[in-house]
């Protein structure tokens, strides 16, 4: 099947409301019951994930037994209660839901970014940045549990107002992709980190263990805190934090390595997040990230590290799996970046024809794309590929998901595209 034909089979994610005024254990009950025949499949998915990481099948059972004893909660007590409510509703073991919520942000191939957008005949003052996002993963059964969650507070002054939206998987209470008024965000997997000593590597991986055991907050839980408040007494929306505040708060926090994209409709920042630091890029025209570091970033520590010498020494430094991830990541970034550059060149030619000899041209600042064009960019191979679970376009100005597609698991014939 050709990619364009597969894309036609993509459908919008089903929408469910989550009422934050309800007790945490009751919030996801209706959603869980709607997918009660599919959620028990997490047991097989957990073993598939173990196999993906190279753990032999003979160790799967003892690991499941150990996980059942140790994986009892998340760092957030509210998120833990939400998972217990799901577990009770559909009789899925709690340890599987905990593992699902902690491990899901690993090994995801993603494309995230934002671009200045303007519809035909709209005045230039109406231009705003739209946040685009695709999520790729190997676990094909998860395609059938992708949902859009609309969060409300029924006991607030605006009981029917949607305060935030998230595209996610049923049973997952963190945030990988979300939007609210004046803020959209997404998370990309980062397969390298800036550790150069044994002690630094130990601290990084020990942090992962503490997250798994519920003693530290996961990165998706941190993102959730920027999208919505977990305080049940906080019934009135306080509004989104500014990008400036986010850029100050997140870098020093201890987290896994990731690429974090935040957009407020005027500016977009991408944090190349390491364990306790981050490199930050920003743009008000176009910016994108996939799953490899920006070569233009200067190292924050002396000496070569897996992250800083990725470009100079090449992907052969990594295992074959990581080498493939980085190669595919570069292809996806080149694909969507080249489309932006072509758009800028068209704008430059148009401006040159209309400009006076002494007039200074700023083609990039004057370049915009329509929503329809951006959807074509997102849907093109390899940005969308055989591993893409879903794609989305979000508008942080209005706090809405303008477009999204969940793709079926079908084989692709890409040679003819």
UniProtKB/TrEMBL annotation:
InterPro entries: Acid_ceramidase_N. One of its GO terms (molecular function) is N-acylsphingosine amidohydrolase activity. It is an enzyme of class 3 (hydrolase). Residues 294-317 are annotated as: Disordered. It comes from the Eukaryota. It holds the Pfam family NAAA-beta. Residues 12-74 form the Acid ceramidase N-terminal domain. Its EC number is 3.5.1.23. This is ceramidase. It comes from Exophiala bonariae.
